[in-house]
Amino acid sequence: MAEKGYVEITIDGQTVQAQEGEKILWAALDAGIEIPHLCAIREAHPPLGTCRLCFVEVEGEGVVASCVEPVREGMVVHTDGERAKTLRRRAMELLLADHDLECKTCVKEGNCEFLQMAISMKVKKPKNLHPFPREELPVDDSHPLIIFDPNKCIRCGKCVWVCREKAELVPFDFVYKGYDMRLTTFLSRPLGETNCTGCGECVEVCPVAALYFRKA
Amino acid sequence: MAEELQEVLAPYPVERRYLLRILQGVQQKMGYISEEALEGVASHLKISPAEVYGVATFYNQFRFIPYGKHHIVACLGTACHAMGGQLILDAFERELDIKAGGITPDHGWSLDRVGCIGCCTKAPVVVINDVIHAKMSPFKVEEVLAGLGLEMRKEKEEEEAGEGESQ
Amino acid sequence: MKGNLNDLQKQAQEKWEELEESSFTIRIGTPTCGRAAGSLDTLQAFQERIKKEGVEAHIIEVGCMGLCFAEPLVIIHNPDSGLPPILYGFITHEKVLRLVEGFILGDDPCLELALGTVEFKEDGTPYIPEMPRFEIEERLVLRNCGYIDPLDIGQYLARGGYLTLQKALKMTPEGIIREVEQARLRGRGGAGFDTARKWKACYQMERGPKYLICNADEGDPGAFMDRVVLESDPHSVIEGMVIAAHALGASQGFIYTRAEYPLVIERLKIALSQAREIGVIGEDILGSGVNFDIELVEGAGAFACGEETAMIASIEGRRGMPRPRPPHPTEYGLNGEPTVVDNVKTFALVTRILQQGGEWFSQIGSPNSTGTAVFALAGRVEQIGLVEVPMGTTLKEVIFEVGGGITNGRTFKAVQIGGPAGGCLPESALDLPVDYDSLKEVGAIMGSGGMVVLDENNCMVETARFFVDFLARECCGKCTMGRLGVKQMLLILEDFVKGEGTEEDLDMLEGLAHDVREGCLCNLGGSAANPVLTTLRYFRDEYEAHVTGKRCPALVCKELITYYILPEKCEKGCDHCVLTCPTEAIATDEKTRKKKILQDKCVKCGTCIDVCPPEYDAVIKVSPPDRVKELEGEAGG
Known about the structure:
The complex is a heterotrimer. By secondary structure, chain A is α+β, with helices and mostly antiparallel strands. Chain A is built from five helices and nine strands. The longest helix of chain A has 16 residues, at 82-97.
């Protein structure tokens, strides 16, 4: 039996103790069990839930997003169920298909969280999907500290979340909706003309090279 | 402009939940939402202009360019689509020579599409200057436009061709 | 005006009885769809004639009776004639004179214009005995619609309005929830969630304030039930909301409706202010100590806001994007407080349940889906309009008996049920009883009640493309599956309707649809798979025709058809098509004077088919497009 305030669950056959109300994803990661994820922020309540990479299977419940589903006493979780794996792969394939993947010329040189996640999931850019109608947008290098390349953005939403925690008035947000939803400043004005202080919180959480520090 | 905006803003307390209502008010008063208005709304509610821009672009109702003198909304709901609504929109686009969401260069005509106006029993329908026109057909599009004073493209072309000949 | 409800009710009833028994009344339906059919002109014509003739008659603007196919609708009651009220259909303004001279000045009831007489059931619900559909229909939500004046709270009171609220305010919250539980009411918004369970979850939350939201954001294209209810009988919804608020302990309510529904907004504003005046909303409601007010919130055109967490975000002034659950709104809703969101019709039914008891309600419909279902019947069906039938009625009964079957003697192909995220069901599903579970089994959903009938002239691939296009535009964009998965489905379907797809794409589409269904952040995005999966399941042959045969069997997909004029049918003296063709794509043969379509100029708008006189009927569509060359060859040779 778990201590007070804690519950005991099973993940891939391993018994794991987790704080009541904790999400499956964090319980697993704390126990050293990997589940793919890109958008998850532990402090975010409710969670962002945007990337759709963290699916697992819970016995009796089916597939759930592990960053959203809280642990329950006696819960049995499988991270390697076929359906969960298929969904994770599909989400990653879609993200890759909508990404320019010019890793050689990218500032992160392939060392970004996104590419590493794709490699660890053994997912490559799919050939049988229709190309998305991506629109090349100009890179914004107006800010003294931060460069914003909207073409790399995977819309995880972490930057907006951390910025909103810190700044009273966020310098950027998502605009439009559907496929056209993208991150931008007010009227897409240069970031350097906004109130962005360059604190760099957004850069720290960006899993791609959409927001990065200017090289000194 | 600034005064009109203040008139819209004044009654609203500084609470974020009034954002949509204020944007609706601005649009009703001015016909569209200008860049200055977006900034004015943000500063009134003390929220980030980027967020106001994000909210305004999320909702289909908000326009960032003015309406034309005549504003046409073609309904493309399920019933209208099943009854040939796309052909009606096509006809407007062809006759006005603009795409949905656009406005003619002389600002005489603007055209939008809408998901459904709940008038499904009269499909296909269009709303022209707030009046609903029921059971449209491509041919009726020409009639309606001519009735509102649009010089038909055909005539224009003929005229142009005629002028060309006489020169 | 505030005072004892019983006194107000008594006064209203006396006034109503006088109106019903001894006054000359002319009721004219002026809801949005009636207006589109010209009912405001009809209204004006009556007003002018009545004034001119100096007749004493009450002209009452009413809502929608659901018989939208026959609009403009007029009900005339001439007590001196000894006849019951008579319902007339298709009364455009030019027919007003005939009615005035016939039945108002004279004693000829103009039966050639009549659809039937208006009789009343025991509970006062009007019905038309001459119309067979009323044998199937059971009107709980639509009880008052089309008969009372929605702008006069007195007429609602006279028919027992707000007496149920008075009763409910004397009950405990648990008592109200128990009635709803006994009724086994499921939410009318689409998913069919157990209403009592939701209420209980909110009621048990020990913090507040609590909020109650009426979801009137009827964004489903092809649906207009909620619009009609709010335009025709707003107080039945308001009454249900106050009852629910008492049960939950909610202090503030919101009605979130669409900006595209200006008349709903106008009428709700009036209804709310009248309700406030007589003290059925506001502070200390009817002396019970309960405080609850309702604020009207206009949406701004975003389909996603129909999803409850998105609606809450929108009311807070944010982008209307759903958020993952849990936590559910009953725990963490508006401003982070416990919140219940229910559909318009759910509230209207709550009023009926509290009035007549949960037990009574549970006897109507089928065991797991109790009560009635309201459908907006549209598309290629004769008697388009609103239908309210007990749950479990078959699709066939709804479409063929209530709806009168398919227009112009064409063949039924499919019924699209449950809005864009619903499904397309084929003929073989017609015997299916309509209830939450049966529909789910065949891949559709009840949705909020849109029912669009499609016939042989509708292409199922194009229909699927249409819905996915709508959902891709309206998807909030927040999650990968919604933003990219739905868009990818659309890209594939766009190829199909152009005849550019492959067999591999078909498999991809199906696989994607399953993944989107399961992998989206919200139900709304997930249900985008339904139109694709149901059309693939029931109409796969049409997909095959597009993909392998490069033809559109229903002759709809523009890239896969051509227009052709049959020379043997073309009448040489007639110039209809030539004169109306918007692109001058029709040429006249100098010798025969017969017409021919110049394919390189034709934009396939269909005007020539529209204008070709039915006695010639010379324009046809062919698919695949090359077929036209064969025809021209045959004709030429």
